[in-house]
Amino acid sequence: MLMKAQTAQLIVVDLQERLLPAIHGGEQVIVCANKLISAAAELMIPVTVTEQYPKGLGGTVPSLTESLRASNATFLPKISFSGMADQQISNAIAGTPERRQLIVCGTETHVCVLQSAMDAQLAGYEVFVVADACSSRTQENKNLALERMRAAGITIVSTEMVLFEWLEQAGTSMFKEISKLIK
Q: Catalytic pick from 112, 119, 132, 142?
């Protein structure tokens, strides 16, 4: 199934200040997450940002602040590894029942991304994990998590797949705006 802007939500998992320096390829994850967030803002796709124990790991990285502000993102702290295990987060996601496609990015792929994605799938959502907008402290843990999620029926995608599927066609003013993110 294709990802549709009208039925999607973007879930940004734990891209936090004190965690990111330890993440393999963390800068690239932020670049890709910024593209997703910016496109979501343009297309009016809801964005939920989770923060794992922000008192200890800090808030979301400042380099995402501008695009998150433009997207009118909802920020929610958690202590459960799975965002779906936190009632406030699962309620926020369920708050737009017509949006059953969850596009998930963030860290760490093998812990919070994996558990959130698998729990969301169990809750009946269609889940897409954006491989180039996710990572872990080691590449091996990221790869194992992506393999496990794929085997469980979660769709693994890239940032560009998401953007082009949300757009659906070229030649529109929205295409011109969002295609700037890809260059």
A: 112
pLDDT at 183 over 80: no
Tally of CB atoms within 10 A around 172: 11
Token pair of 107, please?
């860290």
pLDDT per residue as tens digits for the range 24-41: 999 999 999 999 999 999
* CA atoms within a 13 Å half-sphere pointing along the CA-CB vector of 139: 2
Residue 180's Cβ-side half-sphere holds a number of Cα atoms within 13 Å equal to: 9
Domain of 12 in residue numbering reads as 5-179
Q: Which of 14, 86, 119, 132 is catalytic?
A: 14
The CATH number of the domain holding residue 105 is 3.40.50.850
What pTM was computed for the model? Answer: 0.97
